[in-house]
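User: Here's a structure from my thesis project, written as structure tokens. My advisor, Dr. K., wants to see whether a designed sequence matches the one we expressed. Can you design one independently, without my sequence as a hint?
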């Protein structure tokens, strides 16, 4: 089940607010060599390129479906590449800005990942990262709960995705001991007001639900989806409902 930019962008306004908050943390420089990891459709990378017109930006994403919308955005200082964060980490060179909005939560072992990312910053280089705080977000917890119950556990061959996202205290320690200064770390709530349960399902179906659906046999997918929708309705028993979606924002400059 590939990423679907149309489904993902149904909640464009909700997904863009933390992006703008994160971009405001970045100290302006005359010139920057910058990379956007997990750039998706490239629209946010293009906004960053406009915000920092003297910088050169490379947007990287592993999904060709998402990147299909990015080519029309390219110009002299903005390019896109179908690649992964893992491949990026294996490349040579340093960067003045490593930016990532709502992508690194898909990678494991953040105790190793973040020091590796920081090692690729030039002196004075900046790291700016935003991630959904999955351990405390209700829809993520409901999804994991369902996947751990029978018969869905058997349908998934026992697979369940444990969130790799750490506590904000853990990230403070990692960033500080990896040599970042001017730290700005926050846990913020971005409320989603849903008129009905289907809205909440649609929101998570464009991201966290995807790897679960990919692992299910085709005939089991509608069964799992219907059970998940039922679980959402049971939890949010009153509509309209507020879903206080939590996100972590991390920023620092390399000494």
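Assistant: Designed independently from the structure alone:
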């Amino acid at each position: 089940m590939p990423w679907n930019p149309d489904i993902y962008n149904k909640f464009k306004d909700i997904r863009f607010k933390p992006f703008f908050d994160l971009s405001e943390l970045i100290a302006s420089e005359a010139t920057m060599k910058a990379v956007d990891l997990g750039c998706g459709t490239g629209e946010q990378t293009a906004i960053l390129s406009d915000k920092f017109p003297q910088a050169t930006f490379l947007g990287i994403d592993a999904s060709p479906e998402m990147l299909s919308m990015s080519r029309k955005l390219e110009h002299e200082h903005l390019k896109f590449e179908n690649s992964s964060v893992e491949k990026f980490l294996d490349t040579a060179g340093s960067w003045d800005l490593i930016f990532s909005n709502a992508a690194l939560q898909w990678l494991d072992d953040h105790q190793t990942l973040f020091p590796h990312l920081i090692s690729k910053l030039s002196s004075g280089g900046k790291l700016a990262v935003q991630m959904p705080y999955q351990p405390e977000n209700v829809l993520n917890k409901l999804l994991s709960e369902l996947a751990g119950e029978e018969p869905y556990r058997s349908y998934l061959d026992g697979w369940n995705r444990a969130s790799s996202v750490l506590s904000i205290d853990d990230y403070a320690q990692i960033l500080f001991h990896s040599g970042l200064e001017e730290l700005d770390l926050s846990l913020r709530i971005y409320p989603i007001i849903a008129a009905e349960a289907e809205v909440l399902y649609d929101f998570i179906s464009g991201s966290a639900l995807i790897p679960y659906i990919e692992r299910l046999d085709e005939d089991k997918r509608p069964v799992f989806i219907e059970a998940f929708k039922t679980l959402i309705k049971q939890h949010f028993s009153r509509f309209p409902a507020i879903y206080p979606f939590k996100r972590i924002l991390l920023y620092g400059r390399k000494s």
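When you compare it with your expressed construct, this may help: The domain at 5-254 is CATH 3.40.50.150 (Rossmann fold).
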